[in-house]
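In the lab's daily routine, each protein ends up as an entry in a very long ledger. A line of letters takes care of the sequence, but it says nothing directly about the fold. The three-dimensional part falls to structure tokens, numbers that each stand for a local backbone shape. The outcome of that step, for a single protein, is printed below.
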Amino acid sequence: MSDQSINKLKVIKDSIKNFTSESKPNIICVSKTFPLSALEALIKSGHHHYGENKVQEAEDKWSEKLKTDPNLKVHMVGKLQSNKARKAVKIFDYIHSLDNHKLADICKKSENDFNRKLSYFIQVNIGNEIQKSGVQPKDVKSFLKYCKNETKLNVIGLMVLPPNDDNTEKYFSNVSQLNYELGLKDLSMGMSSDYKIAIKYKSTFLRIGSAILGPRTFK
């Protein structure tokens, strides 16, 4: 499977070349539920960005590896609960799910305590879905202002998980426009099934799992 993952990543990179002549987006290999042994070939091939959605799993999987490979970057791509934020700041380089004041406050205090500086994406609930986390679009500007002025967090862009209602392109377009209006440089948007659409709307971080690693058979 390891050789297959390298080949699949190459296919994705080649397809990206056909969709944009601008700077190439970062590909986060979403490695949640996969053991480190399934990722070793990718790591050795020079791929640096990996995504997890559980703090404890990320700590168990990456803590020792990060000590020997400073080029690795681990991304929190799932919902981050405030009671896990302190531990998350110790292990992750990027958090893609910043979505409330309490979480921002804890992250900042933890950064100070551990002498770390992370990069953050504000998660936008673009479809106003009750079951999903994220800041309502109308509240993003004020929340960004709080993060920048009060907590001094390094917010680099917005993140979105669009509703599954066949309007993905509309949502990506709206979030991309909002990101631009806010003057943010990066954008976390696009997964295995829709990353080509995300590239069209200037995503700079693609969160791709199954298209690289295959079905999630690990528990």
